[in-house]
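Homework help board

Subject: predicted structure for assignment chain

Our instructor gave us this sequence and asked us to write out the predicted structure in token form, then describe one feature. I got the tokens but I'm not sure how to describe them. Can anyone check?
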Amino acid sequence: GLTGGIGSGKTVASDHFARLGAEVIDTDLLSRELVEPGQPALDEIVAHFGTGVLDAEGRLDRAALRARVFTDAVERRALEQILHPRIRAAMLERAAASKKPYVVFVIPLLMETGQQSLVDRVLLIDAPETLQRERAAARDGVDQAEIDRILAAQTDREARRRHADDIVVNDG
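My token output:
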């Protein structure tokens, strides 16, 4: 299981594992597939949160949804109840179908979702918080208040480090 906070460099690490021949199953990518138009998860999200979380083309407006769920723990849990079981099922299905010698699950919220039991080892990609903030702001175009809310919803760095079997400090 590969995990890490926002802007830590999980994608760079998982891309490297893929180049080495591992099956990489990224839960962020799975969640995007599950909320495409016509998917039951998107219908359920709209039923709960309303059409204000859709853009003009009927696709999920991630920024609008993020603004709702990272300011309200109850709403975040509602979204998790819709998505997490579907993500887990898709993840396990793809792992079972893999013919590769290794499977790497990229799960940003590995500890938060209690999925450590699904993996043999936990690799934490870690980075100093100032660097995480810079990367997230540049990549996602979000302000520091939004990053504060996202970081507050994630397990703190020390807890992630305690649960990790291996740690890569990505500060370069």
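Reply (TA_rk): Your tokens look well-formed. For the description, you could write something like this. The chain has eight helices and five strands. That's the kind of observation they're looking for.
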